[in-house]
Structure formats: C-alpha cells, structure tokens
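Chains adopt folds. We examine one example:
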Amino acid sequence: MTEAFPALVRQDDARYAITVGPDLAVGPPGHAYLFGGASMALALDVAAETVGRPVVQGSLQFVSFTPLGSVLDLTVEVLQSGRTLAQARVAGTVDGRLVFHSGISLGMREGFSARQWALAPPVPQPDNCPPCTTLPAQDDNARYLEGIEVREAGGPEVPSGRTRLWLRRKDGAPLDAASLAMFADFLPIALGRATGCSGGGNSLDNSLRITGAAAPGWCLCDMIIPSSASGFAQGQVTLWDQSGRLLATGAQSLLLKG
C-alpha cells in the first residue's frame, strides 16, 4: 500500500497490483472502467515508490480500457538513475494484456528556489462559486466523481472552449502528484462543454508536469480546448492552489465521440 492508494499491493521491488474498485471507476451506465487520471496517478505513484524520488514529469498512452473489477498489474523499469535525475517506464497490464504505458522523470536539484511567472486566472473563491450540476451521468458502480467536490469557477465572460472548475477531494487527501494527475483528467468534461456532447471524448494520452504540491484543499482546474480536427481534439490544463500557486500543467489528445 501507499499513502495515495491504500489498496495497492507491492509484490516485489518493481511490481505492484491493484483491484479496480468503484472508488476509482468512471463511465456511463453499463460501462464502468478505471478513471484515466487514476491510471496516470498510479503510474506516477509506483514510479516514485520504486525510485524514491519525487515526480517531475509523466506521460502516458492508453492502449485499452481497464474494466471495473479487473486486477491491474503495474511493472516499473528504471531506465537510468543519476545523481539528480531518474527516468522510469511503467507498464499497466490486465491478464497479461497491455492497457497503458508511461514514461516518467523523477528527481530534485538542491540550491534552486521556486519561481513563478504565470498568474492564476482571476476567479471567485470556491465559497462564492456554485456547485457543478452538469457532470456526465455515471454507472451505479462508477463512483470516482462522488468523491470529488466540484464547483463552477467560471462565468459568462469565460471564452468558448474554456472551462474553469474548483475541485476538492472529499477524503481530505493532499494536492500531491496523485491528486493532480486525477484532476488534470477533467479535460474530457471541458471537451464536452466545448462541443455540446456530454462526456466529450476519450483520452488517448495524458501528460503532466509538476511544479509543486499543497495541503488538502481546493484546486483550480483551468482547462482549454484549443482546436479539433479529423475527429480528434487537443486539451490543455493548468492546476493552481487556492492562493494562486501553480502546481502543475498538463495536456491530452482526445478522440471525439460520434
């Protein structure tokens, strides 16, 4: 087990397994599966656990869905480990079948103070924002979204293609790499709003670059869908704590729903 995933079982130095339960599942009625952001979060978590260093960056490609109730096996391969930086590959399989693969960079360099040039968008604080009431309908056994408090941070002045949400985990978990990976995967919701199609589309890949972590609390998820073409869309996200500190940036490619 790890702090982020108590149900995760470590089988040896570089192999882990977890049964996909309802708390990590999303999907429409009749089709519950592992939340894509949880796939990324698990990959980051097992890489950090194996290497013993904080995550700097991760990218992940989905090969297939991971069904509710299946056992997800995660294997970490450390590609190189130097004084400052380590790089790892994580493969996720179900019954020997690859469902995703990920490349992750980990490390920390001493002697460099944190600096931030970007500014958080000027939005109302969470207490002044209404709850979100337009999340996609979920299967009865897909309960990940039930564990997240979601509030609308935008307003009528928000341009087309952009969605801003305040997100907070109801279990009081910190805004660590796992939480940020999951929050970054709200991009399909932004795509759904941009296109008018509930659920938006399916993520083909996830990428996340982490600049910090924060104590439990609200996270501002600022998402934009710049364009779509030939049935595919692009999405970008920035994640901020309530004080306006940048925590992470991310991006996805998405397959539009027909």
User: Anything to note?
Assistant: The chain has one domain: 9-108+125-256. The chain is about 10% helix and 40% strand. The first strand starts at residue 9 and ends at 12. The radius of gyration is 18 Å.
